[in-house]
Amino acid sequence: MLSRFTQLIGLGFAVAVLMPPAQAQSETPLLIPFNTSFNHSDNHWIAWMPTHPLYEAVEVRSHPDAQSPKGVSVQVFFTERAGGKNQVHYFNTDAAAKAFRGSAALYRDIAYTAAGAKGSPQNLDVKFKDKDDRPVELSMEFGPKQPMSDLHAGLTNQMGHNRNVIFLLFFREKAASAAKNRILIDGQDFSINAERATSEEQLSRTGYRSNIFVFTIPYGKSQYTWKDGSLANSWRRTFKGVTGPGGERVFRSEVADGTSIEAVTTSSGDLREYRHLNGTHTVRWTFQPALPSILSAQDGQRIRYEASIDNFGVQVHGTAVVQKSNDRLVIEWQHESPEWTKGYHFQSIVQSTPAGYDLEVKNPQTSPAAR
User: Fold this and answer.
1) Are residues 119 and 262 in the same domain?
2) Is the pLDDT of residue 112 over 90?
3) C-alpha distances in angstroms, 59 versus 49, 120, 213, 241?
4) Are residues 207 and 58 in the same domain?
5) Is residue 11 part of a domain?
6) Is residue 255 domain-shared with residue 366, that is, in the same domain?
7) Which residues contact 227 (CB under 8 A, 6 or more apart)?
8) Residue 180 in this model has a pLDDT that exceeds 80
């Protein structure tokens, strides 16, 4: 009944039950229990807008990219103040806007300059037109030889942002508060200053961050089909078995956005480690004991997990509780640390089908009282 369960699914929105082509179909399949996406950027700026009627903040991210104008990929996004804190994103290439998922995304001709010494906060100047064709101007300045610090750096609280859409790990290595900022939308001034700020924290958080990691687990449904020795999913991802360092068993997907996903397994096919790679950067989930497949899983089983980022150590840890009923598996991800993650538990539900399997990742805490 489960002979079609096979290899890994990945980018941003892929999850899978796998088995390499060389394996007999009767062997135990591997379970990869969530979809992931992973973006890395060198630079990030954020400015709070306490006087704007809709948006609480505007942010800018950039990183080198040979395919983007002037060799720099630029993303500007606004976050709503109320409800699920939905976002509107603007990119300086049409390809990046079309590849983005989870929120509204638009291509815009973005005039962008950033300047500053290496290891120091970068001054910023951005101009473009928003979705309503209104001119937007953003600028930020920092003091001469202003240092970077750990204040407002590290892993940030998701703070309700898209809580019904994704589980978010947003990490910044260093940060610096802006000495000056300027935000004009259709000629109206939304710059933040001491008189407009609702708290001292809004002022100190308005500024620059370096070495940015954005890792998400999106909620939603996916379908997977085994065909021609590969596992294809509804997001057009394909995963194949390879030999990893030291001869480890790995299933790898080369993703269209330039990232890759690897699942490291035990000899029996259970998942020891899941890692998403972006250039030289890695977000890694490890499991102890190894995460079982739908065949080997036991009802009530408890799996310890840790999520780490590069060499910055473990960022999230918790316990995955397994519920099994025939050919259906429910995994409850119970985050334990940091404290804020306890409000962002999610479930992975795997159901076998004649052609492969269906997977749903969802946040069970979506009632109005939980938002």
Assistant:
1) no
2) yes
3) 11, 18, 14, 39
4) yes
5) no
6) yes
7) none
8) yes
The last residue of one of the domains, among 216, 246, 267, is 216
The three state secondary structure string of the chain is CCCCCCCCCCCCCCCEEECCCCCCCCCCCEEECCCCEEEEEEEEEEEECCCCCCEEEEEEEEEECCCCHHHEEEEEEEEECCCCCCEEEEECCHHHHHHCCCCEEEECCCEEEEECCCCCCCEEEEEEECCCCCEEEEEEECCCCCCCECCCCEECCCCCCCCCCEEEEEEEEEEEECCEEEEEECCEECCCCCCCCCCHHHHHHCEEEEEEEEEEEECEEEEEEEECCEEEECCCCEEEEEECHHHCEEEEEECCCCCEEEEEECCCCCEEEEEEEECCEEEEEEEEEEECCCCCCCCCCEEEEEEEECCCCEEEEEEEEEEEECCEEEEEEEEEECHHHHHHCEEEEEEECCCEEEEEEECCCCCHHHC
Token representation of residue 17: 């039950």
| Pair (139, 86) in one structural domain | yes
**Residue 277 and residue 309 in one domain:** yes
Q: What is the pTM of this model?
A: 0.85
pLDDT band at 10, cuts 50/70/90? Answer: very low
Contact between 213 and 37 (Cβ < 8 Å) = no
Q: Are residues 207 and 234 located together in one domain of the fold?
A: no
Number of domains in the chain: 2
Check whether residue 261 and residue 294 sit in a common domain.
Answer: yes
9 within a domain of the structure (yes/no): no
Instruction: Supply the pLDDT for residue 272.
Output: 95
The verdict on residue 282 lying in a domain is yes
Final residue before a domain boundary, out of 216, 244, 270: 216
Residues 208 and 229 in one domain: no
Q: Which amino acid is at 26?
A: S
Q: How far apart are the first and last CA of the chain?
A: 39
Q: Is 267 inside a domain boundary?
A: yes
Q: pLDDT tier at 248 (50, 70, 90 boundaries)?
A: confident
Per-residue model confidence as pLDDT tens digits over 85-100:
889 999 999 999 998 8
Mean pLDDT of 126-142: 98
What's residue 303's pLDDT?
98
The confidence score (pLDDT) of residue 21 equals: 38
Q: Which domain covers residue 76, as residue numbers?
A: 39-216
